[in-house]
Design brief:
Strand order of the largest sheet: 2-1-5-6
Organism: Candidatus Wolfebacteria bacterium GW2011_GWC1_43_10
Function: This protein binds to 23S rRNA in the presence of protein L20.
Distance between the termini: 24 Å
Strand content: over 45%
GO cellular component, one term: ribosome
Structural class: mainly beta
Shape: elongated
Family: Belongs to the bacterial ribosomal protein bL21 family.
Number of strands: 10
Pfam families: Ribosomal_L21p
Helix content: under 10%
Radius of gyration: 19 Å
Order of helices and strands: HEEEEEEEEEE
């Protein structure tokens, strides 16, 4: 598995003292303490705590730890801010020369999380 995040790591290292790469909902997120992220819907009420245990990488000013694939004993803690639905995405099907047109919309559920501790 090859990962190219050197540019993102350099930018994050300049602006934050500590950051981590976590995996949730089939996606990877670069997070720092006090960041707000939108992730795939997770169970939980607003105000409740959530723990991300699939941590791929952590780094601060002095050291960097890379997991194979995950780091053991490292967790990222967050607080659920809200459960909501995203803006509507329009799906439009069209066949030329046959007057076939079909429009459909979809609103994806998401969870907004504030990272509290790495």
């Amino acid at each position: 598995m090859r990962v190219r995040i050197a540019g993102a790591l350099a930018e994050a290292r300049c602006s934050h003292t500590m950051f981590a790469v976590i995996k949730t909902g089939g996606k990877q997120y670069l997070v720092s303490p006090s960041d707000k992220i939108r992730i795939e819907k997770l169970a939980g009420e607003p105000g409740s705590k959530i723990i991300f245990d699939k941590v791929l990488l952590t780094a601060d000013d002095t050291k960097t730890a890379i997991g194979n694939p995950y780091l053991s004993g490292v967790v990222v803690e967050g607080e659920i801010l809200k459960q909501a639905r995203d803006r509507k995405k329009i799906v439009f099907k069209y066949h030329s020369k046959t007057r076939y047109r079909k429009t459909k919309g979809h609103r994806q559920y998401f969870t907004e999380v504030k990272i509290t501790k790495i």
